[in-house]
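Example S7 (structure tokens).
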């Protein structure tokens, strides 16, 4: 039994980068940093097929983004998965037909989802205002 215990944390070899670091661990990986939102393109990507890893995301974004991307007629396949419930990561796989790239499909999916959210907010606000006006009469 050791007589002295170390009181400081020791770095472990081959550990993942700490939160906030923007480091690609594999030369085939591409990192996209969008205001602390990290999206990583997983190895093996091509222009028409790629997998993306989203950190700190779950089923809420995964299912809604998958739905919006699949509405695009130029997309052949889109699916998402949560690799493990204890990890705050979501993987999204996109495959497109020739003529469009997965990056364009992902960007269009984000834009369409933001537009849908704007419509929902506007309709909710109008309905709330109508209800409030009826309640005061």
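Recovered sequence:
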């Amino acid at each position: 039994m050791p007589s002295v215990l170390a009181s400081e944390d020791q770095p472990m070899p081959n550990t993942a980068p700490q939160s906030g670091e923007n480091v690609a661990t594999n030369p085939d990986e591409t990192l996209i940093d969008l205001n602390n939102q990290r999206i990583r393109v997983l190895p093996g990507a091509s222009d028409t097929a790629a997998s993306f890893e989203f950190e700190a995301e779950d089923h809420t974004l995964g299912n809604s983004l998958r739905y919006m991307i699949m509405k695009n007629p130029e997309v052949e396949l889109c699916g998402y998965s949560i690799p493990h419930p204890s990890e705050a990561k979501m993987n999204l796989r996109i495959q497109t037909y020739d003529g469009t790239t997965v990056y364009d499909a992902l960007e269009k999916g984000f834009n369409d989802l933001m537009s849908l959210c704007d419509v929902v907010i506007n309709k909710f606000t109008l309905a709330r205002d109508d209800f409030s006006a009826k309640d005061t009469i």
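Notes on this example. Helices lie at 59-70, 102-136.
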